[in-house]
Design a protein that fits this description.
It is built from nine helices and seven strands. By secondary structure, it is α+β, with helices and mostly antiparallel strands. It has two domains: 67 residues; 193 residues, Transferase(Phosphotransferase) domain 1 (Transferase(Phosphotransferase), domain 1). The protein is globular. Magnesium ion binds next to loops. The site of adenosine-5'-diphosphate has 14 residues, from strand 1 and strand 2. This is Protein kinase domain-containing protein. One of its GO terms (molecular function) is ATP binding.
C-alpha cells in the first residue's frame, strides 16, 4: 500500500506489527473490517490475522485508526531469493508453496491485489502475506480497487475498475514463472539484477517486450520450457487483465494456454 507506516511493538507476550494510516479513505473502516473478518475466519496458513482498530492511536487531540497484527519473523521474498537463488531444491519448495497459496486464494474467492517481493514474507521456507490494503474478498464485490499494486508485478492495463477474484491472475503467473526461470537458470538473477524492486521482470519488459533484453534472452534460452513460458507470458500481456485465466498449479493449464496461443497465431 501507499498510505501507511508500520511499527514493530512488543508486549510481554509477543511482537506486533502496528500499521498507522496517513490518511483516511471514505470507506476505509468498512473495507478493512470486511477483510479482517475474512482473514480471521479463513484458516489459511499464509494469512496473518489482523484487527482494524478505529480509535487506534491518538495524535494531538485526534484519534486515528491502526491495524494490529502479529509480527512475522520472516524476510521479504526478494531478500530470501537473494540468498537461495542458486539452490534449486529450496526454490522448488518455495514455488510449490506459492502455487498452493494461489490455489487456496482462488478456492476462497479472494485476491491479494499487490503480490510482490515486499508483501510476501518467508519464514522457515513458508510464505506469509502482509499488506491487505488492496485485498479483494467476496463481501467487497462491486467496489473499486483503492490501489493498483506494484508496477513491476502488475499487468500494465490494470485500473481501479479491476477488482474481483481475478485480480492477482497476472502477478501469480509472473511470480511463478520468475521462480521457474531461476530454477532453470539461476544466473538470470545476476544478469538481470533480480531483487531490485522486482524478481526478474519490470514494467518496461511488459510495456516494450520487443526492446527488453530479458524477454529476448528468455526467447532464445537453451531451456525449451523457458522459451515456451515466455511466449505464454507475452500472450497474457496481450489479454485484458480480466480475461487472464486463473493461475492453477496444474501445469496442464499452462499447456492449454500454449495451445490457445498457437491457434491465435494461425488466425492472425
Ligand atoms: N505482520 C508483519 N510482520 C512482519 N513484518 C511486517 C508485517 N507487516 C508489515 N511488515 C513489514 O513492513 C513492510 C511494510 O508493510 P506493508 O503492510 O507492506 O505496508 P506498505 O507497503 O504500505 O508500506 C512490509 O513490507 C514488511 O516488511
Ligand atoms: Mg507493502
Amino acid at each position: 500500500g501507499m498510505f501507511a507506516s508500520v511499527y514493530q511493538l512488543e508486549d510481554e507476550n509477543q511482537q506486533w506489527a502496528v500499521r498507522c494510516f496517513d490518511k483516511r479513505l471514505s470507506d476505509q473502516q468498512e473495507r478493512y473490517q470486511a477483510i479482517s473478518r475474512f482473514i480471521l475466519e479463513d484458516h489459511l496458513p499464509f494469512t496473518v490475522d489482523f484487527h482494524y482498530i478505529e480509535d487506534g492511536i491518538k495524535c494531538g487531540d485526534a484519534w486515528f485508526p491502526v491495524l494490529k497484527m502479529p509480527w512475522v519473523e520472516g524476510e521479504s521474498l526478494e531478500s530470501y531469493l537473494g540468498k537461495i537463488y542458486r539452490e534449486p531444491e529450496l526454490l522448488q519448495k518455495l514455488r510449490r508453496e506459492f502455487q498452493l497459496m494461489m490455489d487456496q486464494l482462488r478456492i476462497n474467492g479472494a485476491a491479494h491485489g499487490d503480490l510482490q517481493h515486499g508483501n510476501i514474507l518467508v519464514k522457515d521456507g513458508e510464505i506469509y502475506l502482509v499488506d491487505y490494503d488492496g485485498f479483494f474478498v467476496p463481501e467487497l464485490s462491486g467496489k473499486k480497487s483503492n490501489e493498483l499494486g506494484h508496477h513491476n508485478f502488475q499487468h500494465p492495463g490494470r485500473s481501479e475498475n479491476h477488482f474481483g477474484p481475478y485480480l492477482d491472475n497476472f502477478a501469480a503467473w509472473l511470480i511463478d514463472f520468475s521462480l521457474f526461470c531461476l530454477i532453470e537458470d539461476p544466473q538470470l538473477w545476476e544478469t538481470f539484477s533480480g531483487g531490485d524492486e522486482c524478481l526478474l521482470f519490470r514494467r518496461s519488459d511488459f510495456i516494450k517486450p520487443d526492446s527488453s533484453a530479458l524477454i529476448s534472452a528468455l526467447k532464445h534460452h537453451r531451456s525449451e520450457k523457458i522459451r515456451d513460458g515466455v511466449e505464454i507470458l507475452l500472450d497474457l500481456l496481450r489479454k485484458p487483465l480480466e480475461e487472464i485465466p486463473f493461475f492453477e498449479s496444474d501445469m496442464s493449464v499452462a499447456i492449454e494456454l500454449k495451445e490457445m496461443q498457437t491457434q491465435g497465431d494461425l488466425t492472425n
